[in-house]
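[job 0412] stage=complex_fold ligand=adenosine-5'-diphosphate status=START
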Amino acid sequence: MAAVVYVVDDDALVTDSLSRALSLETEWEVVAFNEGARALAEMPRRPPDAVLSDFKMPGMDGLVFLGRVRAQHPDAVLMLLTGYADKESAIRAINEVGIWQYVEKPWDLGDLILKIRQGLERRALVGELREKNQTLAARLGELEKAHDELVRAERLAAVGRVASGLAHEIGNQLALVGYAEAIRDRSVDPEVASFAEVIVAAQRRLAALVDEIKDFARGAAAGYAREPGDVAAAVEEALGILRFDADVKARRVNMAVRARPLGVIHRGKITQVVVNLVRNAAQASAPGGEVDVFVDADGDGAALIRVRDRGSGMAPDVVARLGEPFFTTKERGSGLGLGISRRVIDEHGGTIDIQSDPGVGTEVLVTLPPLPASKLP
Ligand code: ADP
Ligand code: MG
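[job 0412] stage=complex_fold status=DONE, emitting structure tokens
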């Protein structure tokens, strides 16, 4: 494509002779004007690659004109044509506007053409460099992200190792606490029996926590069998289990099954995910509040499980940390529920999306891939 070269001078003799001479350069398209304002009016239609302007002109002088060009076309090559007497003031002004060259009148035509050409070459180079820079910046951003992911993964793995060691140790000691049950059952002293009962309850909670930690630390490597199954049934089973959960009992859970999609699932794991999500929803809601659970299928037959509450919602800093092991805002939370749920759904090839508005509520959408055609009954 031809480079567009503007020539602006109030002296028609200059514009005529210059545009004739420059037009001989076949790779240039030369446009000439005798007023800066006219040239500016043309530029939106025909953006300039290079602009040569006279310094002293009635109306808009050369530097004001070139300053305006610079503002609209930051990459254009700007050249000022000046008389010898104007040199000092021209140089000062040039530094302000950012002009590529000034050329003293009368000029040597060959020299002038060379300068224009150099300006255009430099401009192309700068453009290329800028592009390279942008690519580099983008790459750098990607690298930084990958690095963050790695650090995070490594930290998770480390947390997992420590947690699994702890769970093992606590699990061993818990067996001893099992004696509390025997003490409770055999004691004739009601006070002793009631103390023992407290220990038994604590043991149950701890045992559940240990199971959760072991599950978390199990790592993605340990697989489990999945088979074609009814996703809604897993959800129903979860709600059945939760009938005995104190937090859930104090809220109303509405379930709507709009479709009965099939998936290749580990039913127990999916049940566990729903238990986690519904329990979170209940715990975030005021007593008497409602939690909605929907099961549906999308057009491709993918299963959708939606758990919605109108509870506390989450601030962005909480959302940002979801799934981080042991991150909890609850006095008695393990901070493992969502992390484990995410992993289970990951292992099923599905996704979990969380939308939350502080003070409004939270909606969690689990998507599970449809049953592949080969597995259809
Ligand atoms: P835990 O329930 O043991 O705290 P989770 O991993 O299940 O661990 O949840 C982590 C945190 O995410 C919770 O402590 C809570 O702050 C927030 N959270 C999860 N679900 C909801 C929800 N439905 N509404 C509000 N906050 C939630
Ligand atoms: Mg939870």
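The first helix runs from residue 12 to 23.
[job 0412] exit 0
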